[in-house]
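INFO  loader      accepted 1 record
INFO  loader      residues=551
INFO  predictor   begin
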Amino acid sequence: MVAILLVCALAVMAEDVTFMTNRRQWEKLPSETLMRMAKQFELKDLPDSMFVCWTIVANRYDEHKQTDSEQAMSIRAILNSGIMYAEYYHDLFKAHTNLLRARDLAETQKCNDILPGIYLSLGNLYLENELFHQVENHDDCLQLYWKSVHLAKQQKQWDVFHCVLISIADLAFARNKLSDLNKVILEYNQTAIPDTVNLRPFTQQFCKGLTYLTNQDYEQAITTFRQLPPITQTSNKQKAEIEAIVHNILLHVLMEQGRYTEAFDEINNINRHSKENGLAVGQINALKYYREYYSRLNDHVLSDYYDLLYLRSRDSILNNAQINNFDKARFLHEIDKMNAEVKELTYKEQTKERILWIVGAFSLIAITLLVLLYISRRRIQEGYQRLYRQNVELLAADEAKRQAEAAQPEAMSEVPKYSHNQMDDDVMDELWLQIKRVMETSEEIFHDPFGVDQLADLLGAKRNYVSQTINTKAGEPFPTLLTEYRIREACRRMNDQEHYGNYSVEGIAQSVGYGSRSHFAKLFKAATGVPPSAYMKMCKAGTPPSATTPS
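INFO  predictor   done
INFO  writer      dumping tokens
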């Protein structure tokens, strides 16, 4: 016993492994290939494999990444999955969910060629729900069928057009709605159907039979239905369903005409036909027809007997469907797991894509800022270069002027001593020349501290005379004049790489009388427009030919 259970467990595990392996392999295949495989599995009667193919294609639906043809294939796969849930797995809820999703997507994406089949499948689903759960859905079903008719006519899907019209006729006749029968006849007669359509001869004769019925020519109607041309070039399932509808209509006519012997034979035909073609609904209907037949003959014993069989058969199919669902629960669970994995992977892909977009956006912003910063720095550097060249040119011109003045003999060797408080213009001019000569040639001005008192001592003049002369001739106070000479000398020394090339900014600042680097930098940029560090960097890059070493 244990060995048998072990073998069964191993078989189940092997089946799971095979299923998972096939699924992973199939997930790598193109959607078009999977759809072709599903068709082949349908011919071989391998519904589970067919269902897996459709589920993979259905889960690939993406309105942003797929092409129009790929979207259409995914929508068809969703439709086929819904049909499978209804007809094979008997899960009407999932069937309804898939069919509604297929309808919504087809309408949104304008896949009008898929819509007729979707509405036909929804109508069939409502009929199945009505049969097994005793829910009145025929009005909704008729509405869905008529939508399918109009869309099939627009899309020239003539097989769907004929099948739905025949289904409407069956539903209308069963509910005794002659108005819908007249609508079927009118719709068919007003539609230009090509002669090459397979079902055209059959449906044409079928509508003639309906016309006889509405005109109450029952004998001619029965004859017409019994002489319908054969159905060719269509699937066995579709052929069996259409033939079942014809048997149902014939039975109702014979019963209404009181031709019970013929009606009983027709019930037998329905029962045999349903068993031969695996139509569970037809078998249940046959039992219902037996009940109705014996009820009309007032044979209540047999009527009750077939009523009991009808109820048992209906419940049996429901129970079998539930058992079937239980047997398929593991498979459907794997399908659900696969769908969950696909959704999770899709979510991760979308999250990754969003992150990449965000990173890309931030990278673009960062690159833009870096480019703007580079452009700004480039412009600043170009400005510094321009100011540097101007300063170098000014230094060169100033140096040439100073050397020219140094070559001329001095007019006065001594600074005059003044005994009065007022100076005339000539005396002030002479004192100004002496002040400039000291500022341009004396190293004393680069010592800290150096003020008006030290300058007056070097000139041998009174402090107030020196201050007055500077204010008058230079138009600025002595500290400002001293800063100009010191900054000018700082520029000369930075340009003189031979003697001051090893000096830092602090060293240059101290050499011209400034102990604070920050104070020197502030004064230097105010005077030249260039920070001293940038100026020194440009000097180190190459000494301009016009820059000379201070004497």
